[in-house]
Design brief:
With about 90 residues, the protein is an all-alpha fold. The chain has one domain (about 15-85). It is built from three helices and no strands. The chain is globular and about 55 Å long. Bound molecules: zinc ion (ZN). Zinc ion binds near residues 44 and 60.
């Protein structure tokens, strides 16, 4: 059913954008190789599209974004730490 006020495409575009972003990140960080059929972390079945889009993929989208978040946080702490390293 067509709804005039909330285009479904907008949400899909956002999802596509974040997936593309994650893929771009994953590509630069992951070794190219065999894609796993199941997520290494939570054992979720990897969608064929993801395995195709990300060669050597090891984690599902959820786990990968969690890892990316952790990495980003860690990098942020590191950066701050080196800037202000006289804490002791
Ligand atoms: Zn997972």
């Amino acid at each position: 059913m067509a709804s005039g006020w909330a285009p479904e495409g907008a949400v899909q575009e956002q999802i596509d954008a974040s997936i593309k972003d994650a893929i771009k990140k994953a590509r630069s960080e992951m070794p190219v190789g065999e894609s796993l059929k199941h997520c290494e972390k939570c054992d979720t079945v990897m969608p064929q599209a993801r395995r195709k889009a990300v060669p050597g993929v090891r984690f599902c989208f959820n786990c990968q974004s969690e890892l990316d978040k952790e990495k980003t946080t860690f990098a942020g702490i590191n950066r701050r730490g080196s800037k202000n390293s006289q804490l002791r």
